[in-house]
Amino acid sequence: MSSPKYAVLAIGNAIVDVIAETDDDFIKAESLNKGGMTLIDAERAKTLYSRMGPGREISGGSAANTLAGLANLDHKCAFIGQVADDQLGEVFAHDIRATGIDFAVPARAADVPTARCLILVTPDAQRTMNTFLGASQFLPASTIDPQQIADAAILYVEGYMWDPQEPRAAIRQALPLARAAGRKTAFTLSDAFVIDRYRDDFLSLMAEGAIDILFANEVEIASLAQTDDFEAAVAMAAAQVPLLVVTRGEHGAIAVRGGERVEVPAEPVEHLVDTTGAGDLFAAGVLAGLCEGRDLKQCLTMGAVCAAEVISHYGARPEADLRALISARLG
Fold first, then answer.
1. What does the pLDDT read at residue 57?
2. Residues facing residue 105 across a β-bridge
3. DSSP states along 164-226
4. Which CATH number applies to 6-12+61-107+137-330?
5. How far apart are CA 157 and CA 180, in angstroms?
6. Spatial distance between the Cα atoms of 59 and 16, rounded to a whole number of angstroms
């Protein structure tokens, strides 16, 4: 087998985040799902944007954020996602390429605009996300290049992408290509609402051996297993995938691989500012550690360091040198 060109190739939503500070009164007045992610249509996006306070426009998208973390850690990556031929599409494409990530998917006509996520951050640092998927939900299967899939050590799939029909078809095409090329596949469950809609699909993928690495948080793993018993949920999922990684917020994270189980605490954060991207950057640290052949505890610690960095400032992409932070932590 040839050496991979990329550490990770990701399929995800190409989104520009608009982040604004707010308070609980605004969240309540707008009937928003505090701390969660809600899909909205173009009209709602326009209305909510008009009512938000001043915002910061920062390229985002779950899988793209993870790649930004990996690139910060000096790993070569590539991204598959759809933008429109409009201003936000240019912003997203510029930002991801500026980090050294390969992004070659052509922009589509701007009849449907580039996706955007309106993120309201309350004083407790909780982020409430309202996402208009726009062009990202029209990622065609034709963007899947078998050679590019074979060129990546790990194919990383964003669970949010399972919801729209076209990206789901693209993922269904990509997963067996990675397996045929002898590469690893990783899948992040993304959100409980996605699991509620497609639980059977995800369980089937796991049972078929299509997923090598599964990322989830406590809420997501409970939803997948349909139980409030955390240990029972972990046991169910761990029996179906070679590697399970579950984040637990301030309680750290666990990983289960075969008979091995590892737990690490969350890294201390002096000033918690914005939890947007915490899970995305955690995945970046873990994937980087796996690509470097590190043991599970080191991989989880790398994830915790990356997550701690991103929640210490606004935006879901790293601003500090993650490699330096990890070196200081692990030696």
1. 86
2. none
3. SHHHHHHHHHHHHHHHHTT-EEEEE---HHHHHHHHHHHHHHHHTT--SEEEEEHHHHHHHHT
4. 3.40.1190.20
5. 17
6. 4
**Tens digits of per-residue pLDDT, 41-92?**
989 988 998 999 998 888 889 999 999 999 999 999 999 999 999 989 999 9
Give the angle subtended at the CA of 285 by the CAs of 96 and 218, to the nearest 5°.
105
The answer to whether 205 and 174 have CB atoms below 8 angstroms apart is: no
The span from the CA of 212 to the CA of 186, in Å, is 6
Half-sphere exposure of 128 (CA within 13 A, CB side): 21
User: Radius of gyration over alpha carbons of the chain, in Å?
Assistant: 18
Secondary structure E strands in 68-189: 77-80, 102-103, 115-121, 127-132, 152-158, 184-188
Q: Are strands 115-121 and 15-21 parallel, antiparallel or unpaired?
A: parallel
Q: What backbone torsions phi and psi does residue 281 show, to the nearest 5 degrees?
A: -75, -30
Kind of pairing between the strands at 253-257 and 260-264: antiparallel
Q: Report the distance separating Cα 126 and Cα 273, nearest Å.
A: 9
pTM exceeds cut of 0.85:
yes
Q: What are the structure tokens assigned to 264, written together? A: 């690490």
SS3 10: strand
